[in-house]
């Protein structure tokens, strides 16, 4: 993970990890930090399954690759079972992982409800499961630990970007659209609740549409085109939230095709999820803002926690990585730090 080790951490290092809920005690060994084995890794001999969203999503691809590389560098044998946001395939993959009885399962789930039977079997078999990125929702009782992004902060930052952009234009009233990631994910609901709460502090700002873009740029662009046309005769749309930066890019493209101006003097667009395309768009003056949730930082943190777990350390039941709001004021710093894929 040479690239990971040399990546600047200054942006996120100032924020402390937010720890919630109770501690869980690792059962892999007794206390103390793990020492590298004779094979050269702290995880030598460990069989680990990674089950989750497929590499069709750029964020997930970077996140998964960071985790796999980090675990393998420490000597672990990693089996990666991916699905392209296919719930049935994800359940089959998880069942396959449980049947293999590995030392650990890492799960980036699409539909928590669907995974409960397999998670229950894993729990009964004594197989530890780490939930990744998403709040665990109703599966919390079945997982050993949950390593999450701070989705409340991400939703709030998106709203703050829009509010700041609209206020800079002097607008006291505005219509806002939100095109989200896959709405079956717990994180989408958490982000939208925070987003709506913050926007709700400004009664003149109205969220007129919330649509599922499934984290996909083309899908998001198509939805945005339809919404721009729908509200053309009703005063138009003044701001848009694409839940990931690739989705924000789709919104910007749709706006341009509709003949709308984008940027500080036009449609205010915010993204999230730390894509390089979003950072570059901010610097180009087309996207107002975004937020972090760096897949590299989050993936590295997962590897650190796995090493700690097998070293016998106590892990919090739930942890949230710190996030940073991004605007033109700090976009270059984020880009230079290499935090975004």
Order of helices and strands: HHEEHEHEHEEHEHEHEHEHEHEEH
- The helicity comes to 40-55%
Number of strands: 13
Poorly predicted runs are: 1-38
- On the 0-100 scale, what is the average pLDDT? 89
CATH class of the largest domain: Alpha Beta
Tell me the span between the first and last alpha carbons.
Answer: 15 Å
Strand content: 15-25%
Query: Mind telling me which CATH architecture of the largest domain this is?
Result: 3-Layer(aba) Sandwich
**What is the count of DSSP helices, taking H or I runs of 4+ residues?**
12
Radius of gyration: 21 Å
CATH homology-level superfamily of the largest domain: Response regulator
Largest sheet: 7 strands, mixed
Number of domains: 2
- Write down the CATH topology of the largest domain: Rossmann fold
User: Rough shape?
Assistant: elongated
In the sheet with the most strands, the strands line up as 1-12-6-5-4-2-3
What structural class do the secondary elements suggest? alpha/beta
């Amino acid at each position: 993970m040479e690239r990971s080790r040399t990546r600047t951490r200054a942006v996120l290092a100032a924020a402390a990890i937010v720890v919630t809920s109770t501690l869980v005690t690792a059962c892999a060994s007794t206390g103390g930090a793990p020492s590298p084995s004779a094979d050269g890794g702290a995880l030598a001999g460990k069989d680990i399954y990674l089950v989750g969203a497929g590499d069709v999503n750029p964020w997930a691809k970077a996140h998964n690759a960071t985790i796999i590389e980090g675990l393998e560098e420490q000597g672990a044998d990693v089996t990666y079972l991916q699905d392209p946001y296919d719930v049935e395939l994800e359940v089959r993959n998880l069942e396959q992982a449980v049947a293999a009885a590995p030392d650990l399962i890492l799960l980036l789930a699409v539909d928590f409800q669907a995974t409960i039977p397999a998670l229950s079997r894993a729990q009964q078999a004594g197989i530890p499961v780490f939930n990744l990125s998403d709040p665990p929702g109703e599966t919390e009782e079945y997982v050993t630990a949950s390593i999450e992004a701070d989705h409340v902060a991400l939703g709030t930052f998106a709203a703050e970007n829009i509010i700041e952009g609209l206020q800079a234009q002097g607008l006291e009233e505005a219509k806002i659209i939100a095109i989200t990631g896959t709405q079956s994910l717990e994180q989408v609901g958490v982000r939208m609740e925070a987003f709506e709460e913050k926007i709700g502090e400004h009664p003149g700002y109205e969220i007129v549409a919330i649509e599922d873009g499934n984290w996909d740029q083309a899908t998001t662009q198509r939805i945005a085109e339809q919404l721009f046309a729908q509200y053309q005769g009703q005063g138009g749309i003044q701001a848009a939230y694409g839940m990931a930066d690739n989705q924000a890019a789709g919104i910007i493209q749709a706006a341009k095709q509709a003949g709308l101006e984008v940027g500080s003097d036009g449609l205010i667009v915010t993204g999230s999820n730390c894509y390089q395309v979003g950072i570059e768009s901010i610097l180009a003056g087309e996207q107002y803002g975004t937020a972090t949730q760096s897949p590299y930082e989050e993936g590295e943190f997962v590897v650190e926690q796995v090493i700690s777990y097998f070293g016998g350390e106590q892990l919090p039941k739930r942890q949230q990585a710190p996030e940073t709001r991004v605007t033109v004021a700090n976009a270059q710093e984020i880009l230079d730090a290499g935090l975004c894929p």
